[in-house]
Specification:
The chain has 172 residues and is of the alpha+beta class. It contains three helices and six strands, in the order H-E-E-E-H-E-E-H-E. It has helices at residues 3-21, 90-109, 135-147; strands spanning 38-45, 48-55, 69-76, 113-121, 124-131, 154-160. It has a six-stranded antiparallel sheet with strand order 1-2-4-5-3-6, with helices on one face. A hairpin with a 2-residue loop joins strand 4 and strand 5 (124-131).
């Protein structure tokens, strides 16, 4: 085989090897979390202002298909702690953050959970988390709702969203 042809063949094989080995794969036995880089989101919903914070480190996240379940957790805010536009005053937002942390700690203890961010709007804080498997989280949240043991009224939904379209507008 001529030297030039052999060299070209080896170069092609090396390129193919590098391309295959650098393709995004979910690391075995690990839950890959991108570096946190939170950005403020401001907008409108039903002609009312919204404000939130989202981890734009997930903008180009390569492992979305491994975490296809979107949990949207919505806590009702205390009306007395809201401005007329239904956004929270400082003490109410601090209370909402503490509640968010409490629930996130428990949700993360049930399996991999990717906290994308939260949004204050219309008297609620909406929290977005992507999950690998939803069953344990669903059972936990249903039990909390049924026990009436939560400090705040809340709603939740878990939907299959492998494209992460529920949070796309927040990650720009």
């Amino acid at each position: 085989m001529p030297t030039l042809l052999r060299y070209s063949l080896l170069t092609i094989i090396a390129c193919l090897f590098l391309a295959c080995s650098s393709a995004p794969k979910k690391p075995e036995g690990k839950y890959f979390y991108p570096p946190e880089f939170f950005s403020v989101f401001q907008g409108e919903l039903n002609k009312k202002p919204t404000v939130g914070s989202f981890n734009v480190g997930y903008k180009d996240y390569n492992y979305r298909e491994a975490y296809p379940w979107c949990l949207k957790l919505a806590f009702k805010l205390d009306k007395k702690g809201l401005f007329p536009n239904d956004l929270p005053m400082q003490p109410e937002s601090d209370s909402a953050y503490a509640l968010e942390s409490e629930y996130l700690v428990r949700i993360r203890s049930l399996g991999p959970a990717h906290f994308i961010g939260h949004l204050f709007n219309d008297g609620y804080i909406d929290i977005y988390v992507y999950l690998e498997k939803p069953d344990a989280v669903r059972a936990y949240l249903q039990a909390r709702q049924n026990s009436h043991n939560s400090r705040r009224e809340f709603e939740f939904e878990i939907v299959n969203d492998p494209e992460w379209s529920s949070v796309r507008r927040f990650l720009k």
